[in-house]
Amino acid sequence: MRKRIDGALTGVFAQPHELLHAVTALRAEGHELIEAWSPFPVHGLDDAIGLRPSRLPWACLAFALTGTVSAYLLQWWTSVVSYPVITGGKPLNSIPAFVPVIFELSVLLGALGVTFSLFVASRLRPRFSPPGLFDGVNDDRFVLALRPKHGYDREKLLTRLRELGAVEARAWGADHLEPAPDCGERKLGPVGLALIFTPAVLTLAAIPLLQRNGAVRNFDWDAGMLKGYPSTYDAPNALLPAGQTMQPPPAFTLARGAHQELFGATPAEADRAGLELTDPLPDTDASRARGKQLFNRICATCHGFEGRSDGPIIPKFPNPPSLQSTRAVAFPPGRIYHIITHGQGLMKGWGDVIAPDDRWHILHHLRALQRAGATPPAAAPAPAPASAPRSAP
Ligand code: HEC
Question: Which atom in ligand 1 lies closest to the alpha carbon of residue 393?
């Protein structure tokens, strides 16, 4: 009930249709209806009283949407940001997989939220005695409370109520015949307060019994079944094959985003790479800049900054062939990619340190060097035969 009644008239009826009729008639006559009570829902009474539609569905929608959004964000954050694990080859942000949790949380928050809103809106809270309503209103009596319209005689209205079939009609309120009815605004007594706080008190009392050390379990009732088995990738692991944590990828599988080397390390494969492998990347300024950076860092040690094979460790290292030679200029792109990846003869392969794209960037820089130094130096050392067996660096 919304309003406190400090002055009102009440009529008690024995039949629901009488209540309905009285409510309709008295409102039509201009009196203000405060409330109607009945032991069961009376059809048509909502309309007769002029109840506005409930706003609770909006509260329900708001709570449900909160559930929807938070369930999605939680799953997105855990599976995309915080702990991305590819499952069944699906994208990390797989909304269909999130739907069950989104649905559940929307329903849960919607239901709990609307119930909570109902309590707040109707000011329901724990009481230790039910509101003292009118005798029989929970059983076989139908009661209405109203205020007479301005200037209308209270006594006349009481008569009118009886006319409409009220078995009992009374005036309530401080300045009226009897005190206002007690509509349940009871205070919580000390016993009630003590009962409400009992769970909290018991919980507090139990705290000294708990383990203070967060690393130690309190009650080991599950014989350790819930205990995790933490392990780093390189730690020995008695549970997994070969006693190791990190396992090789299953046969015939390729990790997502992994580069697959299509050519072997033999000279024949180098020739085949020259024929079959094409440069997938555009030869741009940015590409050459990246290539130059890596070339100067890695290749220039032996091949020199211009590819004339006069790097700082020459001649301590067996002279590498000039990259400005007609032979090197004529190498197809795929061949040079293969040399960078797998090496050639005395030169070690750099596939383990240079990413596939970077190999093409180096090629672009090398081509620029070759264009700049168009005349190959006369004293270029004889290039080693491409078919020379590859030796370990
Ligand atoms: C440690 C010294 C060294 C480094 C560093 C090095 N190379 Fe070489 N490179 C050689 C030697 C030595 C040869 C000749 C190998 C053989 O055929 O026996 C060679 C051969 C080559 C060839 C073939 C030339 C030909 O005419 O046969 C190319 C192309 C080449 N290197 C490119 C590169 C590139 C690109 C890099 C950087 C990623 C690089 N090298 C890094 C020593 C080096």
Answer: 1
